[in-house]
Amino acid sequence: MPSRKPSEPQPQASAPSLTEPVEDYLKAIYELERRNGAAATSEVAVALDVAPASVTGMIRRLAGQGYLTHVPYRGVQLTDAGRRAALRTIRRHRILESYLTRVLGFPWDSVHAEAERLEHAASDELIERMAAALGNPTSDPHGAPIPTAEGTVDQRAYRRLADLAVGERATMVQVSDKNPQLLRYLAEIALQPGAEVTLLARAPFDGPLTLRVGEAEPIVGATLAEQVLVEDAPSEPVAAAPRKSRSGSR
Amino acid sequence: MPSRKPSEPQPQASAPSLTEPVEDYLKAIYELERRNGAAATSEVAVALDVAPASVTGMIRRLAGQGYLTHVPYRGVQLTDAGRRAALRTIRRHRILESYLTRVLGFPWDSVHAEAERLEHAASDELIERMAAALGNPTSDPHGAPIPTAEGTVDQRAYRRLADLAVGERATMVQVSDKNPQLLRYLAEIALQPGAEVTLLARAPFDGPLTLRVGEAEPIVGATLAEQVLVEDAPSEPVAAAPRKSRSGSR
DNA sequence: GCGTTGTTTTAGGCTAGACTAAACTCTGGT
DNA sequence: ACCAGAGTTTAGTCTAGCCTAAAACAACGC
Asked: Which nucleotide lies closest to B54 by the C1' atom and the CA atom?
């Protein structure tokens, strides 16, 4: 029977035990830093739906605890400790999403919210048992890479569906898990990780794109195409013979 | 953005969304009320490991929100709303315990702590999917009855192992989930829900009891025997009559 | 080089939930 | 019938995390 005296400074063995808000801040800062090189106060505020002043306050505390460095008016960057904590949370989130969809049959557009709450409550033991039950997957249902327990992640950058050249074929690899409507629509047109997709046509002025996914030829907006990441399709069995190469990819 | 005025009696639409501490208080009060008829401030304080003064404060707030009635210096009792909320949390807890042991292979002595945290984070959807995956079980791994989603529970009272007469045979049905050491020991001697147990001898003055469980004849202390609940064994060792009643309420 | 604009920080408050210390109330023993 | 001790409540603080309003700052256009 472990005696409880929760008000004392803990032995700090290996359980700093971050609060939910702290885990959320670190996770959000990690993602912003990945995308933009650094995280601005206002960006964090938007990501977490809190006032900018609240972010400043939290940031000062986290800097004091060694999770990040803050140059006033310049932005924040995670320290190694901060990055480790963020990746741990992200790992939990993605394993939970995987388990909920693959084992419990949740639709892929509803697992984000559920994982967002469970990631703070689940023990390492539970997470690793779920991972094992899934055969230690390397990506979640939306194609996002799952960090290892040691804190390494696949950092590959992918092209956007919007950047394909007309006629080009690719494999869908990833999409953000945060927009249920988008995810439901993608499921409807069968555009999910692993799916083969060909860009058949592109209307001018950022207009809609015509795709081929399986037998169907859905027409999607540019906004959608910017959110879907793809990688080069494995060398094609039969020639799709793209001849009208007029725009350089990239 | 929902409007804010959280300190007033709310219209009570359908999303009261209790906080973790509130759920814990209601659950603890429910259990104490079941056992003792009413819950005393100090009992709640011990159960939740907080100071008695903290309990008084929380109780005043919960009374104001209509979850319980409080007669100063006399104790508290849950209202219907309070009882419903408590049973919801207890249902979640027990379904989680069942899922963790039966599906994810957790040992039965470690699921309590895990469920204690997850019960506040899991959605109804998740709980019901887990319950369905288990075939809607009616009791958890420790034999505690699982309330239905509508809020009814099997309230049968059982005898304690300590109260058997020498020579009497019974079926083990239930034990508290809160003491991991005890649970580990019970697993060692195969004294788990469903096990047949016979009291072979009892030493005087609350001394140790000699049991028969399967082939073994473990000797256990009176304290242990007081925590283990049993029911009359199916009449004869031979001929198991078809018995199905498992849902009697009241 | 200076002011305007937008971002960031400071200052000051609020709530939930916990604490300690002190005051109050109930009850049981003599 | 009283009064001492156990149990309970009040009073006053504390911390985490959020808020708004106002001040400070950076940076860009002219």
From this structure: C18
